[in-house]
Design goal:
The model is unreliable at 1-18 (pLDDT under 50). It is globular, with a radius of gyration of 18 Å. Strand 14 (199-204) and strand 15 form a beta hairpin. It is an alpha+beta fold. Helix 2 (43-56) packs antiparallel against helix 4 (254-268). The longest helix has 15 residues, at 254-268. The protein has helices at residues 25-36, 43-56, 74-77, 254-268; strands spanning 4-5, 11-12, 63-68, 90-92, 96-98, 102-104, 111-113, 130-136, 147-151, 156-164, 168-175, 180-182, 188-196, 199-204, 207-212, 224-225, 228-230, 233-235, 241-248. The protein contains four helices and 19 strands. The strands form three sheets. Strands 4, 7, 9, 10, 11, 12, 16, 17 and 18 form a nine-stranded mixed sheet that branches. Strands 3, 5, 6, 8, 13, 14, 15 and 19 form an eight-stranded antiparallel sheet that branches. It has a single domain (62-253), classed as Jelly Rolls (Sandwich).
Amino acid sequence: MGYQNTFGHRQKIIFASLNGPTLGPYTLAFVAVVVSRGGIVKPTEIGYLNTFETSMGSELAKFDRLWIHGLFSPIAAKTSFVNPSSTAITAVNSPTFTVNRGFTGDAVSAYIDTNYNPSTSAVKYTQNSASAFVYSRTSDQSPRSDFGSVGLTPLSLIQMYIRANSDVIIGDINANGSTFGVNSNGTGFYSLVRTGSNSSSIYKNGLLLSSGTKASVLPPYNLYLFCINVAGTGADFGNRQISVSGTSDGTVNQANFYHYIQVLGTSIGWAI
């Protein structure tokens, strides 16, 4: 299995079935879209992604977006593994891309517009069943946002401050107020999960960190990474390195999801 770029703009993917596994539909679709956009997916990455797809199984049907930023090609890093034909993310003011690691903010003005609006782009992600997540490779404390979207009237929050104000994590999803927890190290896999109109949680590495009871409200603005999108304007710019991000419904098994993400990250090299 593998890929081939021909001269000019003609590109095609060559998959050899000899001595190799059958590729799953998510992996096949992802590679095809990345190549059509001018990027590449290395043969080893294809194998790792296919193993991830097989491990996740039917759980992948619960996702709207799953960006694996820690790949070789920046085009692949901007293309969602689930629903790859959706609009690619937009890197604004040059967040740093590092091969096999992901994107890094500058704490000044660089951010990623995911081009994903929880009110208009979402299918699996709903007001009362939703999740948003990131994999952070940066441990330091910072009073800055890692991702978010905020509507002001009425107040509606998706926000993640992985390690704000010493050892405090702030995380909200489709909420009208803030939920706090304790977090002494900023690395790892963080998920915000909503399972009801007044039930939300923060998970780290597949384990529950904190729970909240704030009422649910969907924000009407695109989700940003490395800052929070306040009514269309970025604020609280951060500088973490992020290898994975995305959204799903609220029923994904967090322990299993973390485990398979960790296996994928270990294979590629960005796992902490």
